[in-house]
Amino acid sequence: MKYRITLDSMEFRAYHGCYELEQKVGNRFQVDLQLVTELGQVAELDRVEIAVNYLEVYEVVREVMTHTQRTIERVAMNIIERVKSRFPQVESVSCTVAKMAPPLGGKLRSVSVTLEA
């Protein structure tokens, strides 16, 4: 049986952006992550040590967000690569990275990209 782990609306202050000013002053970002993996005996045995530990998943995302990138596409790809590397039992990952109030010259709540692998 497969199950989905969702980390919803993680917020970070980071310095991603194609403009020099964005990389200096930073912005708010929101990350949504969904992981699909095999349940195995996690629920039956009730053993966290054989589950995908979502605290550790959060820490992977938090650490990736500290490395400045020019595009949010690269940020999402980095998150997916790191999650899959750290948790080989994860079969698929969907990652949405949103830049809140992007500097586009008008009022806009956010712009986001979603990558799936």
List the helices and strands and how they pair.
Layout: E1 2-14, H1 20-25, E2 27-38, H2 42-45, H3 54-65, H4 72-86, E3 90-100, E4 110-116
Antiparallel strand pairs: 1-2, 2-3, 3-4
Helix pairs in contact: 3-4
Distance between the termini: 20 Å
Q: Which homologous superfamily in CATH is the superfamily?
A: GTP cyclohydrolase I, C-terminal domain/NADPH-dependent 7-cyano-7-deazaguanine reductase, N-terminal domain
How many H/I helical runs? 4
Computed Rg: 16 Å
Q: Return the CATH architecture.
A: 2-Layer Sandwich
**CATH class assignment:** Alpha Beta
Give a quick rundown of the structure.
By secondary structure, the protein is an alpha+beta fold. Helix content is 32%, strand content 37%.
Describe the protein's architecture and organization.
The protein is α+β, with helices and mostly antiparallel strands. The protein has one domain: GTP cyclohydrolase I, C-terminal domain/NADPH-dependent 7-cyano-7-deazaguanine reductase, N-terminal domain (GTP Cyclohydrolase I, domain 2, 2-Layer Sandwich), CATH 3.30.1130.10. The protein is 32% helix and 37% strand. The protein has helices at residues 20-25, 42-45, 54-65, 72-86; strands spanning 2-14, 27-38, 90-100, 110-116. A 4-stranded antiparallel sheet has the order 1-2-3-4. Helix 3 (54-65) packs antiparallel against helix 4. The relative contact order is 0.23.
